[in-house]
């Protein structure tokens, strides 16, 4: 893992001057991940906030090979490019080493792009898929996705989402790929270590990164990292990795803060604190406890819910 000075000297594949919102977790996640690349990268990007805000014609914020495709097929696109690269390399027409990475939000990953991602993982293409999880379809108007937490306001769940969020990292783990890392923009050393491992493995790797959205989560632009960190400290977002089927807890949260503290930082949960919603907050807490217990079980860690 590189130290902070080393990271500042890495190539900056995503430059400043893009039009992502101030405090956007997606741009932080992208730059932290690409700082771990050990060779030039070919980037595929699903339609979403990251794409529309970094490639407004005739400008681009990318200093790498970059491919924009439809909302649902970034995994198919990048796997096709990776396959073509391997053919050209075997023929001696390409000599240099390249890395392949796909970026998608939770809409393009949990939902619309899941079939494309699953197929690419099953075929075993050598690429890194990065989901910047901001918990809704932010680019098209803050509609709910299957990553949206229970109780959260979106424009399509104005009274709060009634379903629990999908556990995508566990679904990806069921594909038995070489590497999976669940990370947060608040824990940059952990994310850098996981991204380094993801680029190093031979075969597909997946990173699921908690990436707060000031616009959709209704919080201040300067609070992004603090809110992401609180998501870890409340055990809402466990940090772990899965290497060749072996689960390992990355950060042990022994004295968790109540999930309520995390909810209070975001306007999308403001309605939960009206009188009469105490039971719903308890349900959200119970779900976080259960999910963390499941991660502990998979990691063969002792139960530490004090």
Give a description of the structure.
Helix 4 runs parallel beside helix 6 (114-123). The protein has 306 residues and is α/β, with parallel strands linked by helices. The chain has helices at 4-8, 25-34, 49-54, 74-90, 106-111, 114-123, 168-173, 188-200, 214-217, 224-233, 259-263, 278-298, and strands at 41-45, 65-68, 99-105, 128-133, 179-184, 205-210, 240-243, 246-249. The model has no long low-confidence stretch (mean pLDDT 95). Helix 3 links the parallel strand 1 (41-45) and strand 2 (65-68). The protein has 12 helices and 8 strands.
Q: Which SSEs are present, and which pair or pack?
A:
Layout: H1 4-8, H2 25-34, E1 41-45, H3 49-54, E2 65-68, H4 74-90, E3 99-105, H5 106-111, H6 114-123, E4 128-133, H7 168-173, E5 179-184, H8 188-200, E6 205-210, H9 214-217, H10 224-233, E7 240-243, E8 246-249, H11 259-263, H12 278-298
Parallel strand pairs: 1-2, 1-3, 3-4, 4-6, 5-6
Antiparallel strand pairs: 5-7, 7-8
Helix pairs in contact: 4-6
**N/C terminus separation:** 32 Å
Report the CATH C-level class.
Alpha Beta
Which spans have pLDDT < 50 for at least 5 consecutive residues? none
Q: Give the number of domains.
A: 1
* Largest sheet entry: 8 strands, mixed
Helix-strand topology string: HHEHEHEHHEHEHEHHEEHH
CATH topology: Rossmann fold
Binned strand content: 5-15%
Q: Under the CATH scheme, which architecture would be assigned? A: 3-Layer(aba) Sandwich
Determine the CATH superfamily. Thiamin diphosphate (ThDP)-binding fold, Pyr/PP domains
- Helix share of residues? 25-40%
* Class based on secondary structure composition and strand pairing: alpha/beta
Task: Compute the CA-based radius of gyration.
Answer: 19 Å
Query: What's the overall geometry?
Result: globular
- DSSP helical segment count: 12
Q: On the 0-100 scale, what is the average pLDDT?
A: 95
Count of β-strands: 8
Q: Which strands sit side by side, in order, in the main sheet? A: 2-1-3-4-6-5-7-8
């Amino acid at each position: 893992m590189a130290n902070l000075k080393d990271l500042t000297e890495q190539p900056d594949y995503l430059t400043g001057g893009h039009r992502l919102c101030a405090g956007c977790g997606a741009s932080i996640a992208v730059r932290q991940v690409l700082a771990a690349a050990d060779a030039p990268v070919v980037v595929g990007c699903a339609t979403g906030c990251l794409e529309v805000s970094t490639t407004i014609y005739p400008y681009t914020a990318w200093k790498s090979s970059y491919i924009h495709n439809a909302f649902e097929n970034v995994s198919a696109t990048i796997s096709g490019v990776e396959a073509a690269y391997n053919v050209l390399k075997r023929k001696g027409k390409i000599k240099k080493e390249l890395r392949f990475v796909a970026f998608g939000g939770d809409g393009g990953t949990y939902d619309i792009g899941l079939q494309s991602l699953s197929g690419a993982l099953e075929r075993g293409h050598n690429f890194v898929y990065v989901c910047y999880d901001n918990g809704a379809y932010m680019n098209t108007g803050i509609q709910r996705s299957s990553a949206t937490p229970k109780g959260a306001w979106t424009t399509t769940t104005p009274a709060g989402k009634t379903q629990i969020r999908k556990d995508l990292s566990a679904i990806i783990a069921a594909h038995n790929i070489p590497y999976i890392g669940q990370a947060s923009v608040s824990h940059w050393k952990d994310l850098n270590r996981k991204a380094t491992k993801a680029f190093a493995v031979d075969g597909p790797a997946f990173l699921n990164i908690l990436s707060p959205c000031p616009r959709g989560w209704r919080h201040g632009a300067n609070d992004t990292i603090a809110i992401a960190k609180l998501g870890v400290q409340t055990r809402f977002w466990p940090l772990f990795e899965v290497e060749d089927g072996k689960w390992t807890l990355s950060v042990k949260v022994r004295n968790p803060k109540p999930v309520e503290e995390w909810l209070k930082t975001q306007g999308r949960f403001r309605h939960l604190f009206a009188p009469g919603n105490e039971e719903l907050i308890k349900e959200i807490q119970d779900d976080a406890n259960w999910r963390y217990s499941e991660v502990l079980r998979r990691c063969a860690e002792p139960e530490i819910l004090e």
